[in-house]
Write a structure and sequence with these properties.
By secondary structure, the chain is an alpha/beta fold. It has 16 helices and 18 strands. Strand 17 and strand 18 form a beta hairpin. The protein is globular and about 70 Å long. Bound molecules: 3-methyl-2-oxobutanoic acid and zinc ion.
């Protein structure tokens, strides 16, 4: 029988460390529910000590999720561990993941600690974490650049202190598969008590090898992989969950382990994370990219039509490509709408929110005959559900755009409930809309990214717009969806301004 490979998803923690990807509590809950549906073993729900808001989101996830372990990250100090312990208290299965850096450069320049002090702090943190749960994980940050003898020593000590999972991170994405596999093998051979723990790997993608390195670790004994949906994460991201899971499943002949992931939930999870964080998925991304199963050349198409396996090593439906079902139509009632939202893991906690979403749905059904699951996900995100405070809200938009003429936009929006009017010219209708808004709001924010994606196919599809704004060192992503992409753009811009307006101070675990 194959070993179990545990999937530890850190989309809500390491993934959220991507610029602009910060999520509200409700958005995190929606993703956590989907991760549970996907069959993820451990959900790293956040870093509790970052802010009271982060701790609250972890607590809410811990109180909701039943079938996955809910975990909080904690630096190896008393305040962090206690914050993590309190946040996971409501969980049916809760884990504390404590870490400290072990490489000479991190210990000397960042921590300003001697190796002996680092070992002492790690052991203390593990012991303290055991007061809250018997499921404690320890990570040696920057293990890739750490001395092997020191890693053996610290892992030996934390295992003796009671850690059950030992995670070996390539924090800076520096390794290559042969070396990473060898490092895992040597650690398992050399650390006393290594047979009493689960060995884990956590790889970043700076050299594009996060998945390859993680799989090399698995081939050498790791039985937990830390990864994110769509490979989301700081800089070049983390190892991508979908690639790890499908590699292990597709190459059962090579890997002597398997996961309990329901692979048909992969594409819905990918779309949800992309739509909530505003990080689009590149079309040629393995497994979840729009072209991942599209056959362009005639020769390939001919081969696939004659015998599917000629060019396909996986089936699109096995990863959930056809799960985007036609859901509702113009005549669907409120009860059907509500029950569909529940099926999608969307819980609107007030009648008011449900009514607003239903009105939006009816409006959309008037413009677009067929409403799919993805339309509903976008609609709920777009409705502002989960936004703590909506300072700005679009009321109406009129844009004139004609060949040979300068595009002109006129908007009405509310600021804290007060109606405001804006007008502006631009090089195109979107530019005119943004300039009009800025002429009134005067945020001074810099536009870092503007992107449009269609949510479903066809020219009547909703366009989903992402706007990334930077202001005083803070970066936020705003999203908007509409069948009119200029309207979607205005909503996305206002959504980003709302996020900038809700000042959220939070600590970064690794700085
Ligand atoms: O990359 C890393 O080292 C981390 C640790 C906190 C596990 O994210
Ligand atoms: Zn990381």
């Amino acid at each position: 029988m194959n070993d179990r490979l545990y999937i530890f998803d850190t989309t809500l923690r390491d993934g959220e460390q991507s610029p602009g990807a910060s999520m509200t509590k409700e958005e995190k809950l929606r993703i956590a529910r989907q991760l549970e549906k996907l069959g993820v073993d451990i959900i790293e729900a956040g870093f509790a000590a970052a802010s009271p808001g982060d701790a609250d989101a972890i607590k809410a996830i811990a109180g909701t999720i039943q079938n996955s372990t809910v975990c909080s990250l904690a630096r190896a100090n008393e305040r962090d561990v206690r914050a993590a312990g309190e946040a996971i208290r409501p969980a049916k299965h809760g884990r504390i993941h404590t870490f400290i850096a072990t490489s000479p450069i991190h210990m000397e320049k960042k921590l300003r600690m001697q190796p002996d002090q680092v070992v002492e702090a790690a052991v203390k943190a593990v012991r303290l974490a055991l007061e809250y749960t018997d499921d404690v994980e320890f990570s040696a940050e920057d293990a890739v650049r750490s001395d092997m003898d020191f890693l053996v020593r610290i892992f030996d000590e934390v295992i003796k202190a009671g850690a059950r999972t030992i995670n070996v991170p390539d924090t800076v994405g520096y390794s290559i598969p042969a070396l990473w596999g060898e490092r895992m093998k040597q650690l398992i051979e050399r650390v006393p008590g290594s047979d009493r723990v689960i060995w884990s790997t956590h790889c970043h993608n700076d050299l594009g090898m996060a998945v390859a390195n993680s799989l090399a670790a698995v081939m050498n004994g790791a039985r937990q992989v830390e990864c994110t949906i769509n490979g989301l994460g700081e800089r070049a991201g983390n190892a991508s969950l979908e690639e790890i899971v499908m590699a292990v499943r597709t190459r059962r002949d090579v890997f002597s382990c398997d996961t309990r992931i329901d692979t048909t939930q992969i594409v819905p999870a990918s779309k949800l994370v992309s739509s909530i964080t505003g990080y689009p998925v590149q079309p040629n991304k393995a497994i979840v990219g729009a072209n991942a199963f599209a056959h362009e050349s005639g020769i390939h198409q001919d081969g696939v039509l004659k015998h599917r396996e000629t060019y396909e090593i996986m089936r699109a439906e096995d990863v959930g490509w056809h799960a985007n079902r036609l859901t509702l139509g113009k005549l669907s009632g409120r009860a059907a709408f509500k029950s569909k939202l529940t099926e999608l893991g969307i819980v609107l906690d007030s009648e008011e929110a449900l009514n607003a979403a239903f009105a939006r749905f009816k409006d959309l059904a008037d413009k677009k005959r067929e409403i799919f699951d993805d339309d509903l996900q976008a609609l709920v995100s777009d409705e502002g559900y989960g936004t703590e405070h909506e300072r700005f809200k679009l009321v109406s938009l009129r844009v004139c755009s004609e060949t040979g003429e300068v595009p002109h936009a006129r908007l009405v929006f509310t600021e804290d409930g007060v109606e405001r009017h804006a007008e502006g010219d631009g090089s195109g209708p979107v530019d005119a809309t943004f300039k009009a808004l800025e002429s009134v709001v005067q945020s001074g924010a810099t536009l870092l990214l503007y992107s449009v994606n269609n949510i479903t196919t066809g020219t009547d599809a909703q366009g989903e717009v992402t706007v990334r704004l930077a202001q005083d060192g803070r970066v936020v992503n705003g999203q908007g969806a509409d069948t009119d992409i200029v309207v979607a753009s205005a909503k996305a811009y206002l959504h980003a301004l709302n996020k900038l307006a809700s000042k959220r101070e939070r600590a970064h675990p690794q700085v």
